[in-house]
């Protein structure tokens, strides 16, 4: 039976058919009546019928530069599907308002799936839009992906050097630019003055002899593009420069006001004679100037500068200055920092064949989270496999490589660990952080404290000093609390808050630092503390604040020196504290540090010592003072001996703090002599041992 057309009542009683009719009416409004055929309706499909692209990808992946930049062309990979009408072409555009370009297209009959690619070379940060166009001409909504490309190295210049010359009273600060639309953040990685490496600081020409010099720097941008810049120039001087130097030396206390007045009188006389054309008499006046300098109480460097400038002026008057060497800038490509692939820890609990003990790596954060955490966890696990210890990780954000619940349940449970590594478990107790709970709650902290008091080991790494700010016991354990740090520039590559520093190795007898030179250069984030811990701990490493207080890589520090710790700045230490062994390494923010053997050897030795696997001299004055106090209270050290030992210990510590290690040794020898008397009491053996360790430490510092 042939079908019948629907009646009006049928239309009104079927809402789905009514909706279909309303849709046809809307299409009739949008499309001319003459075009309302089956074919024309297929062309005017709604947006939901357009082809669908899969999310675009980039090749290579991940980015070849740092900070998610590419240091070369990038391939944009596109793919889309339209099962009904096929895919006619894939399009892309460079920017939100740029015209679309065709990445690839197909001929009719159009395939249901079309793939293609396009090479992106546009410098800077580009929002790349892409879409697919179906076989019926319908285009999907534009999708986007961000592409960051920078292939051009930064540019460094020294504006204080004009035509290859600079006076003897200038301060040279380089101008650093990254050609637009670059990644910015220009960072000076290395710097040399006349082939001697230094940290990147302003150059006072007064510290250079007159004549030719070369300043060399390697600079990179945020993408990691780098170049070396060798600037050769000539330092000159003048009567005015020499007068200015005299004034500076008076201000610094290098020369007396009386000597300065005498020198200025002779200099003024020489300048007047030179202006009058009396060259020989001017030279004789300068000879008198030199004699006055050499006969005065001046230091070697100051004397050499004043005499050198006077001789320069004499040669200039006589026309005997040597000809200038070639000057200018030579630029050569250099290797910049490379990105570091994400680290993935091995497992929540390792069980290596032959392992003889177990350690806990704790890095759960409730405040700022450091990038190095996963790298350090992986490194510790790798060390466990190499050196025979198992590792547990407690950090839910490292799941599945984390324990499922806190191991800080009781001191007895924690006793299975020879040492516990706090890998920057920053919490919210620092006023600089957002409010949050402590890294350990009250029960967990009690368990941890009991573990330490029972002889457990503790390694405090970097941000461990930025946790549990409301518990003085923890501050004394970690050594000091973080307060702030200088800011850096993200052209460093892997650490936007890091700057260059010279580190002093104070105790080269400790296994953690024995491999290090007396001074060495590194790049890291440099903490300031709530107090200087030197009097309480056994300092292993310290920062040379003069090497970065005016860092070229930290904001406006070159012009306005940073307020730091007052010149004495411990940065790594160890101690025997409250029954346990403690080791703090406050460097280690930069992920790159965990791929540098000279740095990782410090941390590995700290783990070994706190776990009781190696021995080291980590004696402290606080430990010995505590021994005297507790022994006296227990009656194992007689009061008279205790008073004498305390006075001598105070003398030794005061001498140590003023760096008079001979005097400190003398006072400690007297404590050793005091313990030779049986009348001192039963504690005299331990007091003798600790005093000898302190003496050995003082002797190593001489």
Give the topology:
Blueprint: H1 8-12, H2 15-30, H3 38-43, E1 52-53, E2 57-59, E3 74-81, E4 87-94, E5 101-105, E6 113-120, E7 124-134, E8 143-149, E9 155-157, E10 165-166, E11 171-172, E12 175-177, E13 187-193, E14 196-198, E15 203-204, E16 211-220, E17 226-235, H4 239-252, H5 257-275, H6 279-295, H7 300-318, E18 328-334, E19 357-362, H8 372-387, E20 389-394, H9 411-414, E21 419-423, H10 442-453, E22 457-461, H11 472-478, E23 482-484, E24 499-505, E25 519-524, E26 528-529, E27 538-544, E28 570-577, E29 580-585, H12 597-610, H13 621-634, H14 639-657, H15 661-674, H16 684-700
Parallel strand pairs: 10-17, 19-20, 19-21, 21-22, 22-29
Antiparallel strand pairs: 1-3, 2-3, 3-6, 4-5, 4-7, 7-8, 9-12, 11-15, 13-14, 13-16, 16-17, 17-18, 23-26, 24-25, 24-27, 27-28, 28-29
Helix pairs in contact: 4-5, 4-7, 5-6, 6-7, 13-14, 13-16, 14-15, 15-16
Biggest sheet layout? 9 strands, mixed
Strand content: 15-25%
SS elements, strand count? 29
Look at the helices and sheets and give the structural class: alpha+beta
Average of pLDDT: 92
Q: What is the percent of helical residues?
A: 25-40%
End-to-end C-alpha gap = 115 Å
Task: Count the DSSP helices.
Answer: 16
Strand order in the largest sheet: 20-19-21-22-29-28-27-24-25
Global Rg: 36 Å
Sequence stretches where pLDDT stays below 50 over 5 or more residues: 1-45
| Quaternary state of the chains | single chain
Anisotropy-based shape: flat
């Amino acid at each position: 039976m042939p079908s019948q057309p629907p009646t009006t009542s049928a239309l009104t009683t079927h809402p789905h058919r009514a909706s279909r009719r309303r849709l046809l009416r809307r299409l009739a409004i949008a499309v001319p009546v003459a075009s309302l055929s089956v074919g024309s309706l297929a062309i005017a499909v709604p947006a939901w019928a357009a082809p669908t692209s899969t999310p675009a990808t980039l090749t290579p992946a991940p980015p070849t530069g740092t900070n998610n930049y590419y240091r070369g062309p990038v391939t944009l990979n596109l793919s889309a599907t339209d099962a009904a009408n096929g895919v006619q072409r894939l399009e892309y555009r460079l920017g939100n308002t740029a015209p679309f370009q065709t990445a690839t297209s197909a001929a009719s009959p159009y395939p249901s799936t079309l793939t293609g690619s396009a090479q992106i070379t546009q410098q800077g940060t580009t929002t790349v839009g892409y879409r697919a166009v179906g076989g019926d001409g319908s285009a999907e909504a534009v999708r986007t992906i961000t592409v960051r490309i920078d292939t051009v190295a930064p540019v460094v210049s020294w504006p204080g050097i004009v035509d290859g010359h600079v006076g003897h009273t200038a301060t040279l600060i380089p101008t650093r630019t990254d050609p637009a639309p670059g990644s910015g953040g220009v960072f000076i990685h290395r710097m040399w003055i006349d082939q001697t490496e230094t940290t990147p600081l302003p150059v006072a020409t007064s510290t250079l002899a007159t004549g030719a010099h070369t300043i060399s720097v390697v600079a990179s941008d945020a993408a990691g593009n780098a170049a070396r810049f060798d600037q050769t120039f000539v330092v000159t001087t003048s009567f005015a420069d020499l007068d200015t130097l005299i004034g500076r030396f008076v201000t610094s206390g290098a020369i007396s006001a009386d000597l300065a007045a005498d020198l200025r009188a002779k200099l003024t006389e020489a300048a007047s004679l030179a202006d009058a054309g009396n060259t020989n008499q001017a030279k004789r006046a300068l000879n008198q100037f030199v004699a006055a300098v050499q006969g005065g109480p001046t230091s070697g460097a100051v004397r050499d500068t004043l005499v050198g400038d006077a001789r320069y002026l004499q040669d200039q008057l006589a026309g005997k200055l040597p000809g200038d060497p070639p000057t200018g800038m030579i630029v050569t490509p250099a290797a910049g920092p490379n990105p570091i692939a994400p680290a993935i820890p091995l497992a929540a609990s390792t069980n290596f064949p032959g392992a003889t003990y177990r350690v806990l790596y704790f890095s759960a954060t409730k405040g700022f989270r450091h990038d190095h955490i996963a790298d350090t966890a992986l490194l510790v696990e790798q060390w466990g496999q190499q050196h025979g210890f198992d590792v547990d990780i407690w950090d839910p954000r490292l799941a599945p490589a984390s324990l499922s619940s806190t191991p800080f349940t009781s001191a007895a449970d924690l006793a299975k660990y020879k040492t516990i590594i706090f890998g920057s478990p920053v919490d919210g107790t620092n006023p600089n952080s957002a409010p949050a709970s402590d890294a350990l709650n009250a029960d967990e902290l009690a368990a941890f404290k009991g573990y330490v008091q029972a002889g457990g080991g503790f390694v405090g790494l970097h941000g461990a000093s930025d946790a549990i700010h409301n518990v003085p016991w923890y501050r004394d354990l970690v050594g000091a609390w973080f307060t702030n740090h200088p800011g850096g520039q993200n052209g460093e590559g892997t650490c936007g808050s890091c700057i260059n520093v010279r580190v002093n190795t104070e105790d080269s007898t400790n296994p953690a630092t024995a491999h290090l030179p007396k001074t060495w250069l590194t790049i890291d984030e440099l903490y300031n503390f709530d107090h200087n811990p030197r009097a309480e701990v056994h300092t292993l490493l310290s920062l040379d604040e003069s090497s970065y207080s005016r860092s070229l890589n930290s904001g406006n520090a070159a012009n306005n020196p940073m307020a730091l710790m007052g010149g004495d700045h411990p940065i790594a230490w160890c101690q025997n504290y409250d029954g346990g062994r403690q080791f703090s390494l406050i460097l280690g923010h930069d992920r790159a540090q965990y791929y540098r053997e000279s740095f990782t050897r410090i941390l590995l030795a700290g783990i070994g010592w706190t776990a009781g696997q190696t021995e080291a001299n980590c004696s402290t004055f606080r430990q010995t003072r505590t021994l005297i106090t507790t022994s006296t209270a227990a009656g194992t050290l007689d009061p008279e001996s205790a008073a004498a030992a305390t006075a001598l210990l105070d003398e030794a510590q005061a001498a140590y703090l003023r760096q008079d290690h001979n005097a400190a040794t003398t006072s400690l020898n007297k404590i050793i002599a005091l313990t030779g008397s049986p009348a001192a009491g039963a504690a005299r053996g331990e007091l003798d041992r600790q005093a000898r360790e302190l003496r050995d430490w003082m002797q190593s510092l001489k």
